[in-house]
Every structure is written in structure tokens, then in C-alpha cells.
């Protein structure tokens, strides 16, 4: 699930268009749309429709806004091994991945992050050593998989 402006740009949790009031409620300052899959339900952009969730001026509780940003879940990393030099493109599958803004391998940032759908992303590994945690950062915080990727030394020969 993603939240979008009318022009199709994604809304992050930090940039949710709302102005704080004296009470916990917030006033939505820009029309907000929700994206839902249709058809095969593959989560690909061409398989989604956008519906207006909150028109500008709507007052909602901040907690309702927070619930819209579901944390990412990581289910698989493929391949799960690669050379210590890095540069391997890995595919990460899970759910709510459309808000992932960074992926790290043992604390080192991956490169060329490409969020393909709510259920899949690709990223290139940085150089590293041994078994490392893979961590995904999104609007709701971070999720990690201990020993999610293992760097292997090149075969001697």
C-alpha cells in the first residue's frame, strides 16, 4: 500500500500533508490518495488504482495517519551469498516494501535500490565480510534479518 498525491508522487510519513492543531487531530493540507492493487493483484504499478483517502481540509487523528504507514516485512533475500567485493544484485521479497528508502548490509549501504513493487525490491551489495544482517529502513523504522547475507572470499586457484 502506498499513499500518493494527485500527480502520482509518493507521500512519505515525514512529508504527510497535514498541519498540527492544538489537539491530537491534524488537518490534511493536500488531497491524499491510496493505491490498491487490482487485476492479478501482483502489486505492480500498472496493476493498481488510486482512490481518494482524505480530501484537503479533512481532520483526522494523528494515530490514524500513523497506522497508514505499515512497517516493511522481509521474507527472502536471493541470492543470500556473494563475493566480498560486493556489487551483487540481490532481490528482497516481503511486504510493504514500497516505502523502503535504504538497505544496509552489516551497516554498509547498498546501492542502486530499485523498489519494483510492494512485495519486491532489488539492491546491489557493498563490499563486506562474513555473515551480516540485512536492514531495511522505511517510514515506520527499520526491519532486519540477522545473517541475511553472507560474503564469501573468492576461490583460490
Automatic annotation (TrEMBL):
Q: Name one Pfam family in it.
A: TIG
Task: Give the CDD domains listed for this entry.
Answer: IPT
* Domain IPT/TIG span(s) in chain numbering: 71-152
Protein name in UniProt: IPT/TIG domain-containing protein
* SMART domains, alphabetized: IPT (SM00429)
Species in which this protein is naturally found:
Streptomyces cavernicola
| InterPro entries recorded | Ig-like_fold, Ig_E-set, IPT_dom
Amino acid at each position: 500500500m502506498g499513499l500518493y498525491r494527485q500527480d502520482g508522487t509518493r507521500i512519505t510519513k515525514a512529508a504527510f500533508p497535514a498541519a498540527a492543531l492544538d489537539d491530537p487531530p491534524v488537518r490534511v493540507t493536500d488531497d491524499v490518495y491510496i493505491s490498491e492493487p487490482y487485476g492479478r493483484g501482483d502489486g505492480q504499478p500498472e496493476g493498481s488504482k488510486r482512490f481518494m483517502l482524505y480530501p484537503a481540509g479533512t481532520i483526522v487523528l494523528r494515530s490514524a495517519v500513523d497506522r497508514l504507514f505499515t512497517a516493511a516485512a522481509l521474507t527472502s533475500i536471493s541470492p543470500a551469498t556473494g563475493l566480498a567485493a560486493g556489487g551483487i544484485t540481490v532481490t528482497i521479497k516481503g511486504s510493504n516494501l514500497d516505502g523502503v528508502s535504504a538497505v544496509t548490509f552489516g551497516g554498509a549501504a547498498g546501492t542502486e535500490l530499485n523498489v519494483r513493487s510492494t512485495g519486491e525490491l532489488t539492491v546491489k551489495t557493498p563490499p563486506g565480510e562474513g555473515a551480516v544482517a540485512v536492514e531495511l529502513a522505511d517510514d515506520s523504522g527499520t526491519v532486519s534479518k540477522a545473517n541475511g547475507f553472507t560474503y564469501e572470499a573468492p576461490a583460490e586457484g
